[in-house]
């Protein structure tokens, strides 16, 4: 009977360590997934910040050239001339019309 008890103890210890190692493997896999996901989210946040910075630069440049154009328009009006305003391109015109609907 003691042989069966010893065998049962060895098998239960082996089974316990097997179950423990399976759960540790699952936890390590989950932690690795969470770490990778966290790194991806950090990358996306960094890309978003970079794009926002580039957008601010482009908007500043656009505002500068709008100011230059407004200055020229004012100079023409002050000289008694009426500047011609060209029609916007068809793609922008279509975009404005579709936004209004």
Structure overview:
The chain has 101 residues and is mostly helical. The chain has one domain. It has two helices and no strands. It has helices at 2-78, 90-100. The longest helix is centred in the middle third of the chain and has 77 residues, at 2-78. It is rod-shaped, with a radius of gyration of 35 Å. It starts with a helix and ends with a helix. The relative contact order is 0.04. The mean pLDDT is 82.
Provide a quick synopsis of the model.
The protein has 101 residues and is mainly alpha-helical. The chain has helices at residues 2-78, 90-100.
Sequence-ordered SSE layout with sheet pairings:
Elements: H1 2-78, H2 90-100
Entry keywords:
mainly alpha; 101 residues
Which word captures the global form?
Answer: rod-shaped
Number of domains: 1
User: Structural class, please?
Assistant: mainly alpha
State the end-to-end CA separation.
88 Å
């Amino acid at each position: 009977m003691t042989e069966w008890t010893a065998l049962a103890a060895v098998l239960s210890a082996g089974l316990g360590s097997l179950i423990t190692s399976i759960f540790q493997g699952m936890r390590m896999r989950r932690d690795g997934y969470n770490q990778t996901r966290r790194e991806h989210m950090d990358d996306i946040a960094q890309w978003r910040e970079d794009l926002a910075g580039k957008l601010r630069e482009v908007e500043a440049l656009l505002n500068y050239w709008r100011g230059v154009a407004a200055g020229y328009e004012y100079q023409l009006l002050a000289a008694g001339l009426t500047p011609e305003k060209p029609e916007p391109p068809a793609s922008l015109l279509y975009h404005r019309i579709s936004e209004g609907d």
